[in-house]
From TrEMBL:
Residues 247-267 are annotated as: Disordered. The chain crosses the membrane at residues 42-60, 111-131, 152-172, 221-245. Residues 248-260 have a biased composition (Basic and acidic residues). It comes from Massariosphaeria phaeospora. Keywords: Membrane, Transmembrane, Transmembrane helix. This is Uncharacterized protein.
């Protein structure tokens, strides 16, 4: 006679509560909803953090580029002599009636735009991989392993791209800022878009419009938004590497158990 006629699967634990019954086999396991919640948490990182950050970087750079193209359609900006600082009386150089122009170096800004586009694509692929790996992954073990390591490869490649972009862009801007806009333009050297707009904004008696202020702010914001994008990329790569290592360990344990079973059967 079972302990509880209405539930033949009742527990016989004397320390259990009087009305506590063991789970019926038909009730299923509760671990699957928790796994889905965990998968949703993983999806938040690429979809709600990395992807929007890359879109924000792209938008800011496009705004600054559009502003500069609209005001310098030929890619050359002339600085009137009234915008230059006054020269000393001993100097033989004069800026009277002179318009200084200099070519624009668009490489750093274009690199930021390309990195933002690739980072958004990598984030989308990573989110798809997380979705395929939800609930432990559906399908064969080879398919799960392929998605797992594809996710690792995509996130590590994205991290490397963001690191290279930050190094190249920040070094270029630091070099331009250190030399200064006026010496660069007098020497005829190319200046970056950010250096041009931010340097022109700080010149005395600049005869331009407010576009240099807006363009400078947008360019600086786009460059510094690479830093939180780097943090998100590091976190995403760490999560994917952890999943890959744990999955590899589980696969090794399964293979070890299978080999052990074969040996016992052969004996």
């Amino acid at each position: 006679m079972p302990l509880h006629p209405e539930n033949p699967y009742a527990t016989a634990n004397p320390y259990a509560a009087p009305n506590s019954y063991a789970a019926h086999p038909w009730q299923g396991s509760r671990s699957r909803p928790r796994t889905r919640i965990s998968a949703c948490k993983h999806l938040l990182l690429p979809l709600l953090i990395a992807f929007p950050l890359s879109i924000l970087v792209f938008a800011l750079e496009q705004v600054s580029n559009y502003i500069l193209r609209a005001n310098a359609p030929l890619g050359i900006v002339g600085i009137p002599e009234s915008a230059f600082p006054p020269q000393s009386s001993s100097s033989n150089d004069t800026y009277l009636g002179l318009v200084i122009d200099s070519p624009i170096d668009g490489m750093p800004s274009n690199f930021i735009v390309a990195t933002a586009v690739m980072a958004s694509l990598f984030a989308a692929v990573s989110a798809l991989a997380f979705w395929e790996l939800r609930d432990g992954g559906a399908g064969s073990a080879a398919r799960v392993t392929a998605w797992r390591w594809a996710n690792v490869g995509v996130t590590v490649l994205n991290l490397a791209l963001v690191v290279v972009c930050i190094v190249v862009v920040f070094l270029a801007e630091s070099r331009n800022r250190r030399e200064g806009l006026i010496p660069l333009m007098l020497a005829g050297k190319p200046v970056t878009r950010e250096t041009l707009m931010c340097g022109a904004k700080d010149l005395k008696d600049w005869e331009g419009e407010d576009w240099v202020v807006v363009g400078c702010g947008s360019a600086v914001a786009g460059r510094w938004c690479l830093v939180p994008l780097l943090v998100a990329s590091v976190a995403l790569a760490g999560v994917c590497l952890g999943m890959g290592v744990r999955g590899k360990g589980k696969d090794g344990q399964k293979e070890g158990k299978g080999e052990e079973g074969v040996e016992l059967g052969s004996v």
